[in-house]
């Protein structure tokens, strides 16, 4: 984005500057960055799984600084985190038109890509490994339970098209609608529980592949696990479960804290410290949390708030965290106590709007997030 928060569709140009030609991915010593569907969004990922949260933080912060320095010198541009760009107009969003564009073209023949749920979403995706089929099934079901409540602490998308909106997690609201032509692709966002990978492939992948085929979708979209748009999916190529339900945060340290929270809470569930809620209950709770964040009522806790659920999950995480993970959990505790990033941004914009115009207040607050990203400091 530029210095006035205008999104810049220049990812292909940045890639060419690093590689000398337009490719999908630029490989650097410890991390890679590359294209997404949207040409104003850059995907950044490590070259190898992290051995520790500290390695995670150091590697990805180096990635942020490397890209920031290039953008600043070459384009006078900046990076911005969070789950949605607050100023983007869909008419101005660019779609990747280079190598491997066939995937997006195939998607575009089945789904309307000119939606916020396609062109204006930025998520933090966490991959957790499993060792064998049984452990994979168990981890999938545990993460399915957790994913209903993670947005209560991970929401960071209170605004879009220059306005602060009512929902706590607007990214997830749009995400849940972006493939409504074939509802089985996204399901209820909360994955259905499964007892085996065979059941998963039949019940979930088989179902949406059959529906896609009936709608005339391209063969390249059929029987692919990555097409599944639920909040947790199997990535068989990585032997991992991928958690997709969390908004991108304001800085790497906050992303690391979320990973520590998820990993440690999942350990407690796998040890049997608590029971899984019914899928129906989880779906209702997630919908309520998308709208109201930490203030939502949680059916799994007999009408207590999502904040109560998150405190409960945090206690499980604290009991099961490694020493390194424990260093990051106070940030989650602060989020639960004082509000997720979406709620904090909304309140700061509201206070600033009392002194200036609404859009000017929004831009001013979000520009502060740029500094938090570079300095790797949580925003409160």
Q: First CA to last CA: what distance?
A: 22 Å
The CATH class name reads Alpha Beta
Residue windows where pLDDT falls under 50 for at least 5 positions:
none
Q: Please work out how many helical segments DSSP would assign.
A: 15
The total tally of domains equals 1
What is the radius of gyration?
Answer: 20 Å
Rounded average pLDDT: 96
The helix-and-strand class reads mainly alpha
Helix content: 40-55%
Order of helices and strands: HEEEHHHEHHEEHHEEHHEEHHHHH
* Biggest sheet: strand arrangement: 1-2-3
Keywords:
380 residues, Creatine Kinase, Chain A, domain 2, mainly alpha, 15 helices, single chain, 3-stranded antiparallel β-sheet
Explain this structure to me?
The protein is mainly alpha-helical and 380 residues long. The chain has one domain: 2-Layer Sandwich (Creatine Kinase, Chain A, domain 2), CATH 3.30.590. Helices cover 48% and strands 10% of the residues. The protein is built from 15 helices and 10 strands. The protein has a 3-stranded antiparallel β-sheet, with helices on one face. It has a 3-stranded antiparallel β-sheet with strand order 4-8-7, covered by helices on one side. The chain has a two-stranded antiparallel sheet with strand order 5-6. The longest helix is centred in the N-terminal third of the chain and has 23 residues, at 53-75. The protein starts with 10 loop residues before the first helix and ends in a 5-residue tail after the last helix. The model has no long low-confidence stretch (mean pLDDT 96).
List the helices and strands and how they pair.
Blueprint: H1 11-19, E1 25-27, E2 31-34, E3 43-46, H2 53-75, H3 101-110, H4 116-119, E4 123-129, H5 133-147, H6 151-154, E5 159-160, E6 163-164, H7 170-175, H8 197-214, E7 232-235, E8 240-247, H9 252-270, H10 279-292, E9 297-298, E10 304-305, H11 306-320, H12 323-326, H13 329-338, H14 341-353, H15 358-375
Antiparallel strand pairs: 1-2, 2-3, 4-8, 5-6, 7-8, 9-10
Helix pairs in contact: 2-9, 5-9, 9-11, 9-13, 11-13, 14-15
């Amino acid at each position: 984005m530029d210095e006035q928060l205008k999104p810049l569709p220049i990812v292909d140009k940045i890639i060419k500057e690093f590689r000398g030609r337009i490719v999908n991915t630029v490989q650097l010593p410890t991390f890679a960055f590359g294209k997404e569907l949207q040409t104003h969004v850059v995907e950044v990922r490590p070259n190898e799984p992290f051995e520790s949260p500290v390695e995670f933080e150091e590697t990805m912060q180096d990635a942020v600084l490397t890209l920031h320095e290039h953008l600043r010198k070459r384009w006078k541009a900046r990076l911005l985190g969070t789950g949605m760009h607050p100023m983007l107009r869909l008419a101005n969003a660019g779609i990747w038109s280079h190598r491997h564009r066939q995937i997006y073209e195939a998607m575009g023949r089945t789904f309307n890509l000119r939606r916020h749920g396609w062109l204006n979403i930025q998520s933090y995706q966490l991959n957790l490994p499993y060792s064998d089929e049984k452990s994979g099934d168990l981890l999938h079901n545990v993460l399915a339970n957790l994913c209903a409540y993670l947005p209560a602490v991970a929401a960071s998308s209170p605004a879009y098209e220059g306005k602060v909106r009512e929902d706590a997690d607007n990214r997830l609201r749009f995400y849940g609608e972006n493939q409504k032509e074939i509802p089985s692709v996204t399901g209820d966002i909360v994955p259905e529980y499964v007892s085996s990978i065979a059941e998963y492939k039949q019940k979930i992948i088989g179902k949406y592949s059959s529906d896609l085929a009936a709608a005339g979708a391209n063969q390249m979209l059929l029987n692919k696990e990555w097409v599944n748009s639920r909040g947790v999916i199997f990535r068989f190529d990585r032997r991992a479960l991928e958690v997709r339900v969390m908004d991108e945060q304001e800085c790497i340290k906050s992303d690391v804290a979320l990973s520590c929270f998820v990993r440690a809470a999942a350990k407690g569930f796998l040890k049997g410290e608590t029971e899984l809620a019914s899928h129906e209950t989880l779906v209702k709770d997630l919908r309520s949390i998308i709208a109201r964040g930490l203030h939502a009522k949680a059916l799994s806790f007999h009408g207590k708030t999502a904040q109560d659920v998150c405190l409960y999950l945090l206690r499980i995480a604290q009991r099961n965290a490694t020493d390194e993970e424990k260093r990051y959990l106070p940030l989650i505790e602060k989020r639960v106590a004082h509000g997720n990033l979406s709620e904090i941004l909304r309140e700061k914009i509201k206070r600033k709007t009392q002194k200036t115009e609404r859009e000017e207040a929004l831009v001013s607050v979000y520009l502060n997030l740029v500094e938090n990203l570079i300095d790797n400091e949580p925003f409160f």
